[in-house]
Amino acid sequence: MHRSTADDEFHQKVTDTRGPLGLLKDMMLMKQTSSSSLRALEFAARSHRMFIDGEWVPAASGETFDTINPATEELLATVPKGGAEDIDRAVRAARKAFEYDAPWRRMTPSERGKVIHRIGDLILENADELAMIETLDNGKPFSVARHGDIPFAADVFHYMSGWATKVEGSSIPLGQKYLAFTQKEPVGVVGVVIAWNFPLLLCAWKLGPALAAGCTVVVKPAEQTPLAALRLAEIAREAGLPDGVLNVVTGYGDAGAALTAHPHVDKVTFTGSTEVGKKIVHAATGNLKKVSLELGGKSPNIVYADADLTTAIPAVANAIFAYHGQACNAGSRLYVEKSIFDKVVVGVSDYANSIVLGPGAESTTQMGPLVSDEQLNRILGYIAAGKGDGAQIAAGGERHGSKGYFVKPTVLTDTRPDMSVVREEIFGPVLVAMPFTDASDVIRQANDSPYGLAAGVFTTNLSRAYTTAARLQAGTVYINQYHMLNAALPFGGFKESGWGRELGRLAVDDFMESKSVVAAL
Fold first, then answer.
1. 5-14, 311-320, 482-491: segment of lowest average pLDDT
2. How far, in Å, CA of 453 to CA of 295, rounded?
3. Is 398 annotated in the active site?
4. pLDDT tens sequence across 503-512
5. Can you tell me the distance from the alpha carbon of 139 to that of 147, in angstroms, rounded to the nearest whole number?
6. Per CATH, is 300-474 categorized as 3.30.950.10?
7. Does residue 27 register a pLDDT over 80?
8. Distances (CA, A) of 59 to 87, 88, 226, 259, 520
9. Nearest to 274 by CA among 294, 295, 297
């Protein structure tokens, strides 16, 4: 393969740092040595700092930690291990940037919207590099990140930029003696804690509406996938975001705990597990800060006998196997009318067996690795528990290969409502399938869960589709499709799947306070 000048320059740079030379070799073998891929590798290999008050700084302790490429189990990057002192510094910077006379607050809504829109533009301009960063950091296929996560993230910033000029109050008629009106104001300093499954996209979901509302932000990315947030900080600064408006502190759970409990944080927005979400609620009681939570799910998919199976089978498979099953709204419980149960299970199992597993950077890969060895052991543990409880494996059911955190897409049958694989969120490519005969009973089973994030319905009967959707306890109900998301469409859950909504106008409202002003005339 011909080596370009860029190749040579990059090789020298990663030699000068202690960067992951093994990654360069892998990328060369995969023929993914575009300039964007090289930039992504260079970014991973550099000596990383945190972003606080417009400056790149080390952790106060001087400590660092390593992140791992989940496809190779090798070193990917070394980042600062931030703690409570770093969180405090970042919160104070965000508080200063939120002051009434600070540059961010002095901007007109139109000016603020233009900066937010520019962030979206720069994401698109750097789409290939950002997609490769996501692939290396998270494991997802490059094609998924490039054509899904990255353009969606840009779209969220573009969409939310328009709301900066459309936040309005209203006048309240109280008679001739008073002038009364309401106005919307930003809630203040926002602590953002995000999960590892959509590192850049979840940043966009949080930052887009928070910035549109006029808030300032401290982000604590997941320790498994910190690179996207650091790269986004560079992009935000290039877009013209004033110092202190966005701060990024990398670290472990103790940093997140310090952020959620900090007395000068006015709101926390979190995406992750329900277990951690409950801890955040307790941490927020100190100053009764506002909290929005996008948490776990165990989403049901219902397939009636009259469904168009040419649509239903691939959609059901995509509902669980897209994103390696590492999506909070994954359709992980499948209920199929008994007369077509065997046919649907065979179809979904064939789909599962056809999925090509491999490193995300390979062009043929359809499913990459799980994000970590912890996640690998978790998924394999659930599969073993299901088998021990009597479940049968229709597809997958085991690790794929011996290097990297790969699990074969799995379909389990002969499952019962009391099994852990049916009750608990697995967060991996594992589907449990159960037959039903009674429409009312299947809705009861679908709702028999502490979660209520999403659900799916497949039928050609329009009345049945809407009746079922109305009875399902879920924040989003998909009909004859699954995983449709849009920047304008609110997303969130019922019950233990969370508080508040991401995306759409409702997301902006979550970062606002309403003030009533009354003047005597």
1. 5-14
2. 8
3. no
4. 999 999 999 9
5. 15
6. no
7. no
8. 10, 12, 14, 15, 53
9. 295
Q: Is the dihedral of CA 103, 97, 246, 61 positive or negative?
A: positive
Which pLDDT does position 33 carry in this prediction?
52
Query: Is position 73 annotated as part of the catalytic site?
Result: no
Identify the active-site residue in 129, 134, 294, 362. 294
Hey, what amino acid is at 97?
A
CB 291 within 8 A of CB 268: yes
How many Cβ atoms from other residues are within 10 Å of residue 178's Cβ?
12
Q: What is the pLDDT of residues 388-425, one digit of tens each?
A: 999 999 999 999 999 999 999 999 999 999 999 999 99
CB 293, CB 498: distance < 8 Å? yes
Q: pTM for this one?
A: 0.92
What is the SS3 assignment for 13? helix
Q: 409 phi and psi, to 5 degrees? A: -55, 130
Q: Inform me whether the pLDDT recorded for 31 exceeds 60.
A: no
Looking at domain 48-294, what is its CATH homologous superfamily? Aldehyde Dehydrogenase; Chain A, domain 1 (3.40.605.10)
Count Cβ atoms within 10 A of the Cβ of residue 266 and give its class: 0-12 exposed, 13-18 middle, 19 or more buried.
Answer: buried
Write the DSSP string, 148-178. Answer: IIHHHHHHHHHHHHHHTT-----EE---TTE
Domain ranges of the chain: 48-294, 300-474
CA distances from 505 to 129, 246, 431, 516, 519 (A): 30, 22, 33, 21, 29
Q: Which of 42, 129, 203, 328 is catalytic?
A: 328
The rounded distance, in Å, linking the Cα atoms of 160 and 41 is 30
